[in-house]
Design a protein that fits this description.
50% helix; binds (2R)-2,3-dihydroxypropanoic acid
Length: 425
């Protein structure tokens, strides 16, 4: 069974491989997405190291001059996706979106470097990527934390990757819809509309795009101008972890200044994260930077915080919270608490399980020594694949496959979970 799953996972990656980048899935997502690529590279690394490095190289070939790495790169025209390059109008030779996504590349590149069999290739590629990834991290702290709090804000739900999370409901309701140009959604032609964000959320997503576009995508202006500014513990944990991993990589590649700065970013971030802790929920919460208030929403973002080296008592509390979620959800880790009123088992980030988040949570908990919870998460992840194939996400109640099919990063995570026995559990 294990070998069959590994072969099937490799087939999914090959099927979505466009030579120098990989699409998340055919139809629904026909371009290169930022964090999909970084996590998918981890899958390629198990059977084609050169191809894995190319995936990250292609992503960083489209980094903006200010350091931002965009969330979508529109390598080819495809009329089946909305909003396409004409809506973003970022003016790039190869069109890109104008916002970013969780910066998981620092983590991925360290992992690929240390696991590499071809050390010469890995050294050459990691050395070239190191300053680019560092420039992206510096961009984050400069553009998304102008007050120097130690944590960055996302300015659009799409930046979080958790597009329609309950976490954004209140802040997103503040985004107006007047002036939104008429549009036709295409995502609902490729996937079940009951699995996707609502029309009202889409109108606000597009309002934000139009608003940033009207500011010429100038990242020195977007943060303060945006009505949506949320500090997500999950997003920040990914950034902090990538900074910490980049520091380790920089040590190995003899780049002491990058190592020093990256360690400083990580240390400040970890310290600042404590402001987001909730004793009531036993997990971290999002902070609405517009109001200065914590957002009372027990979602997976506050559990993903354990991907960074949070204090041991917080990691232990998160493990206990996940264990409790496991008493009510058949499959861990639901993206929202099943006992909350807003929980929706099938709708994108309002309840379903995502294997990439399971992978990052499991990795963080393993580092924190919480092995029993890791075992349950990995076991549930493999069961979901066995029952329902390589879906985009799954119901935590019934394992129903949701969203797109033949999903690249789901397949990549399966290779991570299974291909190196003992590596994850
Ligand atoms: C989408 O189109 O659903 C994406 O999540 C936006 O990045």
């Amino acid at each position: 069974m294990k070998h069959t799953l590994i072969e099937q996972a490799q087939q999914v990656l090959r099927r979505n491989d466009r030579g120098t980048y990989t699409v998340p899935t055919h139809g629904l997502y026909p371009f290169q997405w930022n964090w999909d690529s970084a996590l998918s590279a981890l899958g390629f690394a198990h059977f084609d190291e050169a191809r894995a490095w190319t995936e990250i190289d292609t992503l960083f070939a489209h980094q903006w001059e200010d350091g931002m790495v965009p969330h979508i790169i529109f390598h080819e025209r495809d009329e089946g996706y909305f909003p396409g390059p004409d809506v973003w109008a970022t003016g790039r030779a190869v069109p890109t979106s104008g916002i970013t996504q969780p910066p998981v590349a620092g983590f991925a590149v360290r992992r690929m470097f240390e696991a590499a069999i071809d050390k010469n290739l890995a050294t050459e590629r990691a050395k070239a990527l190191l300053p680019r990834i560092h420039a992206w991290h510096k961009w984050f702290f400069r553009s998304r934390d102008p007050q120097g709090s130690g944590l960055v804000a996302i300015l659009h739900p799409w930046e979080s990757g958790r597009d329609n999370s309950v976490d954004w409901d209140v802040a997103l309701a503040r985004v107006p819809t007047e002036g939104v140009e008429p549009f036709t959604r295409l995502d609902t032609h490729h996937a079940n509309p009951a699995h996707r964000p609502t029309q009202s959320q889409y109108e606000r997503y597009i309002w934000l795009v139009q608003s940033f576009r009207s500011l010429g995508w100038d990242n020195t202006r977007l943060h303060d101008a945006s009505p949506f500014r949320v500090v997500d513990p999950g997003f920040n944990a990914i950034l902090i972890r990538s900074c910490a991993d980049l520091a380790e990589l920089a040590d190995q590649l003899d780049e002491p200044e990058i190592a020093r700065q990256s360690r400083e970013f990580a240390a400040r971030g970890i310290a600042a994260m404590e402001r987001l802790w909730s004793d009531v929920h036993g997990q971290y919460l999002c902070l609405d930077r517009t109001t200065g208030e914590l957002i009372d929403s027990p979602s997976i973002g506050g559990l993903l915080a354990v991907f960074a080296a949070v204090p041991a008592d917080k990691a232990a509390a998160i493990a206990r919270r996940i264990d409790r979620l496991g008493d009510v959800a058949k499959f861990l880790v639901p993206s929202h608490d099943p006992s909350a009123a807003e929980f929706d088992a099938l709708r994108y980030w309002r309840g379903p399980v995502w294997l990439i988040v399971n992978y990052m949570i499991a990795d963080g908990l393993r580092h924190a020594g919480q092995h029993a919870t890791v075992e349950r998460i990995v076991g549930d992840s493999v069961q979901l694949i066995e029952r329902s194939g390589f879906a985009e996400y799954y119901s935590p109640v019934t394992a129903e496959p949701c969203g797109g099919v033949h999903f690249t990063w789901t397949a990549a995570m399966v290779l991570e979970f299974l291909a190196k026995p003992g590596a994850m559990a």
